[in-house]
Design brief:
The complex is a heterodimer. Chain A has nine helices and twelve strands. By secondary structure, chain A is α/β, with parallel strands linked by helices. The radius of gyration of chain A is 20 Å and the shape is globular. Chain A starts with a strand and ends in a 9-residue tail after the last strand. Chain B is an alpha/beta fold. Chain B has one domain (about 5-330): P-loop containing nucleotide triphosphate hydrolases (Rossmann fold, 3-Layer(aba) Sandwich), CATH 3.40.50. In chain B, strand 4 (about 65-70) and strand 5 (about 75) form a beta hairpin. Classes of the chains: A alpha/beta, B alpha/beta. Chains A and B meet through helix 6, helix 7, helix 8 and helix 9 of A and helix 8, helix 9 and helix 11 of B. The structure holds adenosine-5'-diphosphate (ADP) (2 copies) and magnesium ion (2 copies).
């Protein structure tokens, strides 16, 4: 097991009250495994990854739970320990929109080399060689080292930020919507690169996207997130071929298919307001299978099949 | 069926500065001939920067063509003055990707909807209110008497976009350019919006140019599909034919790039189009796709293939299927 998260919570203070962006989530990822985290915007995907990498916004009010990385409890580490031992070395993250926040006045090679020089105290020439090596792995020609961000295409910038994340060869990399700003042909190239890196380096990844079709392009396992919770978890086969949670079922049914015909459905209503979420199950106001109990009590966790986990009253023992 | 909108060899260039004194043309739309029939939805797909928005806006004369012809309901309007095109501002509408960009956040929905009616001189206030209510009902924004009092920020993205649909329909247009109308909307509501768009199309016999980079949504709203690459149309035809059996290597690559939800996707690499799209300032000679094409032949870098019918109801501009090419021409600026 590379990563094991239990009951992670991350809440923000807002003008309107406390916002439960991550509200008790648990998941586990094996070595070399890709976990796809899917869900609509605002469901807490980015917040969860900020929680894992401890890159907390200043208005976080509650941050608790257990995060075990290669058997080591990260929640017990001090800020300094976390920064020196974990960031980049053990977990690296490609932020949503990172390719557009590259520094415009520093050559991209220098930006990528920076953690090596600053954290690893590596000599500049050595750092450059290392960067060029990684550039080659991600399909960037060596000239890229001396380029500025604005001289690169979107696809190349995305390769640069992926290179940055790979630099210290961490066992886990988190990619937050890494292709959402790219055209489909470039997206497909980046996905092939990720597949190749995953195979070569036996690297575990959390691949975050709102697009379940895209998620299936890389994920061994999938976690479906809704309103701050993981409502369904399982292998990609289980989640896509045999979805249990009504939300997962509708999410799949609302995805237009290119290669076969379906009459896509939509999910009525809107995602919950995480400051004042519905009582009981967060999804009950939109659910096509809603029962009495759903609005009264939090749903139980059920394990319909080996490796499959779902939070829903349909599979609960107290099913009325 | 008659055409509502037709373009013949239409070109639209932007002028950009290069260095201090030099300006160069960006050939955003570079010789496009197409038509949209009455009550038909034509989907226009292609990667960003290929000229979809520019073509859409040029068909509305919101951008000025440098050459070619633009025909609207049988009338050549290429050179009509903007002054004389007031009727077009009513008969043709545009819907944008970001509903926030086209609605005033300080007005309530009633005011937002009323604005175009006042501009187009619908004098009777009761009549205006009636029109607004009917339009909001058509986009299923219930309960209407509550919705009209709300401000844009009180609605979800999908609901805001429905307001812009309703507003575009108020004046009973024949032609609508919908430029990536669902790209910023959550997956779970995207389908609902597309259904609303389809229903409106049928209800009002609209002709719609549906612009999207997402080929899988095109299938659900359009009758025909056109594919653009660097200012040119490279393929078009019946939407199911083009998606089911794409002819142009670019269309083939585009479709291969898009995954459907399928757990076996992860087990193999995806076939991809190599490289990146060229820019529209210096597009490659001959067929613009030849620099990335897996089937490139010597002729492809010399001549530009013509867009002609290959199979019934399906046209492609590719020398794999025919030998016809476009005669060289240097369009003069006719303005
Ligand atoms: N720093 C913050 N302060 C307050 N609320 C936040 C902050 N960051 C995110 N949120 C809110 O938390 C929820 C989850 O957001 P996010 O984690 O960005 O979701 P996702 O990545 O799935 O789109 C949203 O309601 C969002 O508005
Ligand atoms: N206002 C502008 N000035 C100069 N060039 C532009 C302008 N708008 C778009 N372009 C260029 O024109 C080409 C076509 O753009 P656009 O029509 O927006 O494509 P699409 O809608 O397919 O993304 C691109 O190369 C783009 O960079
Ligand atoms: Mg996010
Ligand atoms: Mg556009």
């Amino acid at each position: 097991m590379v990563l094991k998260i239990e009951e992670l919570h991350l809440h923000y203070v807002t003008m309107r009250g406390m916002l439960k962006a991550v509200d008790g989530i648990s998941l586990e990822i094996g070595s070399g495994e890709a976990l796809g985290l899917v869900g609509e915007s605002g469901c807490g995907k980015t917040s969860m990854s900020l929680g894992i990498t401890r890159l907390l916004p200043s208005n976080v009010s509650e941050y608790k739970g257990s995060i075990e990385l290669e058997g080591r409890e990260l929640m017990k580490l001090s800020k300094e320990e976390f920064r020196s031992d974990i960031n980049w070395k053990k977990i690296s993250m490609v932020f949503q929109g990172a390719m557009n926040s590259l520094n415009p006045v520093i050559r991209v090679g220098i930006q990528v080399a920076e953690p090596l020089v600053v954290h690893e105290k590596m000599r500049k020439q050595e750092a450059k060689e290392r960067v060029l090596e990684i550039f080659e792995r991600v399909g960037l020609p060596p000239e890229t080292f001396d380029r500025y961000a604005h001289e690169l295409s979107g696809g190349m910038k995305q390769r640069v930020v992926i290179a940055m994340a790979l630099l210290l060869n961490p066992p886990l990399i988190i990619l937050d919507e890494p292709t959402s700003a790219l055209d489909v042909s470039i997206q497909a190239q980046v996905m092939n690169l990720l597949k190749q890196l995953k195979k070569e380096r036996n690297m575990a990844m959390i691949f975050i996207t709102h697009d379940i079709a895209l998620s299936s392009d890389i994920s061994d396992k999938m976690a479906v997130m809704y309103g701050g919770r993981i409502v369904e978890f399982g292998t990609s086969e289980q989640v896509i071929n045999d979805p249990r949670h009504p939300y997962t079922q509708k999410l799949l049914a609302s995805t237009p298919l290119l290669r076969s015909y379906n009459e896509p459905e939509f999910i009525p209503g809107a995602p919950p307001d995480l400051v004042s979420p519905p009582t009981g199950c967060n999804y009950h106001p939109r659910c096509h299978m809603v029962m009495d109990v759903c609005s009264r009590k939090d749903p139980p966790t059920a394990y319909p099949e080996e490796g499959q986990r779902v939070e829903c009253w349909l599979y609960g023992e107290e099913n009325e | 069926m008659s055409s509502i909108v037709e373009t013949r060899n239409l070109r639209m260039y932007y002028t950009v500065r290069q260095g201090l004194f030099k300006t160069v043309p960006v050939k955003a739309v570079d010789g496009v001939s197409m038509n949209i029939k009455a009550a038909e939805t034509l989907a226009l797909v292609g990667e960003s920067g290929c000229g979809k928005t520019s073509l859409g806006r040029t068909t509305l004369r919101l951008l000025e063509p440098v050459s070619g012809e633009l025909i609207f309901k049988g009338k050549d309007i290429t050179h009509d003055s903007q002054q004389s095109l007031k009727w077009l501002r009513r008969d043709a509408q545009i819907i944008f990707q970001d509903p926030y960009s086209s609605i005033n956040p300080y007005m309530n929905i009633h005011q937002i909807m009323e604005e175009p009616l006042i501009i187009h001189k619908i004098e009777d206030a009761d009549k205006r209110t009636e029109m607004i209510y009917r339009a909001l009902e058509e986009v299923r924004l219930y309960p209407v008497d509550e919705v009209v009092r709300k401000y844009p920020h009180m609605l979800s993205g999908g609901q805001r976009q429905r307001v812009t649909f309703a507003r575009a329909l108020l004046l009973d247009p024949t032609y609508i350019v919908a430029d990536e109308p669902v790209s910023m909307i959550d997956a779970s509501s995207r389908v609902e919006l597309l259904q609303i768009l389809s229903n409106l199309q049928k209800l009002h016999n609209l002709s719609i140019l549906y612009i999207t980079h997402d080929i899988s949504t095109a299938k659900y709203v359009s009758n025909r599909l056109a594919v653009m690459y660097v200012g040119k149309m490279v393929e078009r035809g019946d939407v199911l034919k083009v998606i089911g059996k794409p002819l142009h290597p670019y269309t083939q690559g585009l479709i291969a790039s898009v995954p459907d939800p399928d757990p076996s996707n992860r087990l193999s690499y995806r076939e991809v189009i190599p490289g990146e799209p060229p820019n529209a300032i210096n597009p490659p000679a001959g067929c613009r796709f030849h620099t990335r094409c897996p089937h490139v032949m010597p002729i492809c870098s010399e001549k530009e293939p013509k867009l002609i019918e290959i199979e019934q109801g399906q046209d492609a501009a590719c020398f794999l299927y025919h030998k016809e090419f476009v005669e060289e021409e240097q369009p003069g600026d006719k303005r």
